[in-house]
Amino acid sequence: MKPEKIEPIKGYKEVELVQGELNRTRKIGSQMIPKLETMTIDILRRNNDMFAWNPSNFRGINSEVIVHRLNIDPQAKPVKQKKRAFGVERNKIIEEEVNKLLEAGYIAEIQYTSWLSNVVIVPKASHKWCMCTDFTDLNNACPKDPYPLPRIDLLVDSMVGCTLFSMMDTYQGYHQIFMAEEDREKACVVTENGVYCYNVMPFGLKNTGATYQRLVNVMFNDLIRDTMEVYVDDMLMKTRKERTPRTS
């Protein structure tokens, strides 16, 4: 007899965490029993201040806890990529994104850098464009961080016997970790309007996943493998009985 195949429950419903504010919502399963749904919504609303909605809602991880270091090979020669040319439409997208990053404090203008990387514009599933940075040359100069990431198959096995799951994805998680002061002048990007360095850990840098995993393993050490599983910035709370997960 073949084991019963587990199928994911389809469908979610949007819940207003602050009633009347349609831009502050979270998703819950649409097939919860009424009592569990009511309890879950109540907990989410009572703890709505735990959610971040924009960069001003968090200050970042204390640098004494962790920072991202490049650990560049001392034999590597710095590379300054030649600035790429973009059309008017894409330059406008780049300018808007740079202004957002400047306002949030994620980047800052810089002079006389030895390393320089280009902007890359990639399409998103929403048919919009996303600005990334081509750190290829910088990444090639950095050895791989051997810090282990969890095995996906073991994470799946750990969910056996659980009846309720709560998934969390951190808000701009990578940007909550600062770059080491001495490495900021190397993680630089050139645009039509100037040269900027990253104050926070950007997407696209080598070993950022290892840095983030190192952080969450420390933060959730007492919960991992018991009531929680974490793979980089994706987190899963698991409950073995059908009750509302506790929040802290």
UniProtKB/TrEMBL annotation:
Q: What Pfam families would the database entry show?
A: RVT_1
* The Reverse transcriptase domain, residue ranges: 122-242
Q: Which domain of life is it from?
A: Eukaryota
Its transmembrane ranges are: none
Protein's UniProt name? Retrovirus-related Pol polyprotein from transposon gypsy
Record organism: Sesamum latifolium
